[in-house]
Amino acid sequence: MQEDFHYYATYCAAFLAGYSHEESLCISYSAQFVDLCSASLLAKLRAPKSAATTQLSMEMADARTDLPGLQNITRIWASFHFLPYDLNAEKKGVSRRYRRKYRLICHPNGSLVEDTVRLAKGGSLQSVGLAMHVLADTWAHSNFAGTPSLVINNTDSHFYELMPDGTERAVRFRHNPIGPDDLENGIYTNSIYQMGENSIMNLGHGRAGHLPDYSFLRYKYLPAWDGYREIIKDNPSDYLHAFCQMIEAMKYLRGERDSFVRERYDWAAIQGLEDEIREILNRRQNNACADWKALGEKLSGQEIEDFSVETYQQEYLEAAGKDKDATFLGKFFLAALAQKSMVTNKIYKSGSLLAGYSVDFWEKGFRGIKDFRKLVDQVRDSRK
Fold it and tell me: Which of 83, 111, 201, 232 is most buried, judging by how many CB atoms fall within 10 Å of its CB?
């Protein structure tokens, strides 16, 4: 997904869930910030580098693909963008190594979605926004895994866009990372085919380009993990489900719902708006920021300021010591550390080291990366 959904559509969902204009801005900013909180930015802010929720293109170009490097990549991408659906999934006739990667494939409505939403319960608005990014991406990034893998994430040349008039059009891929996708002619940028199993080019939906990130697209293709059998992806439907599931989740986080239940969507919240939302989702355009912004401003009657990665940086830099944790970005970093710790621990407990080691502090004492000590201190303080 892109800024149009993570920022503006998330604002709309938050407002429909009952949050105020100011609260909705905080939530939507945090949801979009997940795509920008890189190690480079954290170094600039002198913030804990383990709070990274993404890796920029320039960082990926230099990323190590030895075991520690691959574990770091998986911790980031599986925790925030390709949440695993079933860490106990079985597949007959495959090696244990393959099965462990297979278990990282992302789909909506897995148990980790529940864990992600419940982790944000009672937390900051930043944790709500972060959780909404993760939830939404389970719909857009379905069928791909947040770890480099040719045998899981590769696609075949059998790739067709399903056009609104009922016809099919072959998707043509190119490798121009700085050129915009040509929507009119069906020419899209994807990652270069690399035979290496752990090549960065085989991370997530790189081999499918930005097709999963466009709400209007319907397409069919052959994923490697399913034996190159055809899958149809209906983004407009998936994005609408994601939107209504976010409303449902945020009503739970606000206390309006007693529980968060998978496969429950608040269709009632969009009564009178469904046609307009479907029109936005189906409109063929590189991004839908203007459309979602207009809808959000109509809902709240307030201006939605444009997203800027610089907005809260000075506040964080000027705060002293532990006061940093109380700033906007400080709260986001704590939420990011908590989410990454939770997902890493779940992957580790499934018997896989793809995301590295994880130790339960309350069972064995603190033995982890010092950045995560913040979480331990936070929990300890809350228990006093």
Answer: 83
